[in-house]
């Protein structure tokens, strides 16, 4: 049974700008596992795309859950990884989580569907 659906869209240039002003932004948004992957990217554009994609994913997840980010769930509580085929996934107790993340030159977007188990 579908529990919730969330979607988010963010400008990659906005993330680039935030990264320049707040170098610790990845520590606020990314889990430890996600930061390892982020730190492996050397190109500024790819780092910004990855961070924007994960930001959008976590926002979409919180919308699907119906809580938003802050009081009940934080960025750090959501760990989005990739399987062996590159498909993004989130493990969250009690739910099957369907995740899609996409990028263009200017935008990153994510859609999350939560299925109650």
TrEMBL record:
Molecular function terms in GO for this entry?
holo-[acyl-carrier-protein] synthase activity
Q: Which Pfam families match?
A: ACPS (PF01648)
Its gene name is acpS
Highest lineage ranks of the organism? Bacteria, Bacillati, Bacillota, Bacilli, Bacillales
Q: Which family does it belong to?
A: Belongs to the P-Pant transferase superfamily. AcpS family.
Which InterPro entries did the record assign? 4-PPantetheinyl_Trfase_dom (IPR008278), 4-PPantetheinyl_Trfase_dom_sf (IPR037143), ACPS (IPR002582), Ppantetheine-prot_Trfase_dom (IPR004568)
Mind listing the UniProt keywords for this protein, alphabetically? Cytoplasm, Fatty acid biosynthesis, Fatty acid metabolism, Lipid biosynthesis, Lipid metabolism, Magnesium, Metal-binding, Transferase
* Cofactors required: Mg(2+)
Give its E.C. classification number: 2.7.8.7
Q: What is its main location?
A: cytoplasm
Q: What is this protein called?
A: Holo-[acyl-carrier-protein] synthase
Query: What job does this protein perform?
Result: Transfers the 4'-phosphopantetheine moiety from coenzyme A to a Ser of acyl-carrier-protein.
Reaction(s) catalysed (UniProt annotation): apo-[ACP] + CoA = holo-[ACP] + adenosine 3',5'-bisphosphate + H(+)
Spell out the subcellular localization from the entry: Cytoplasm
Q: Name the HAMAP family for this protein.
A: AcpS
Q: Start and end of every 4'-phosphopantetheinyl transferase domain?
A: 4-109
Write out the residues that bind Mg(2+): 8, 59
UniProt KW Transferase keyword? yes
């Amino acid at each position: 049974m579908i529990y919730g659906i969330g979607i988010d869209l963010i400008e990659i240039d906005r993330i680039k700008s935030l990264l320049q002003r707040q170098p610790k932004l990845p520590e606020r948004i990314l889990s430890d596992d996600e930061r390892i992957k982020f730190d492996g990217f050397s190109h500024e554009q790819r780092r910004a795309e990855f961070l924007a994609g994960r930001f959008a994913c976590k926002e979409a997840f919180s919308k699907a859950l119906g809580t938003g980010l802050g009081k009940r769930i934080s960025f750090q509580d959501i760990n989005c990884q990739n399987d062996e085929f590159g498909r993004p996934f989130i493990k969250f107790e009690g739910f099957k989580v369907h995740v899609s993340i996409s990028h263009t030159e200017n935008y990153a977007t994510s859609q999350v569907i939560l299925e109650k188990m």
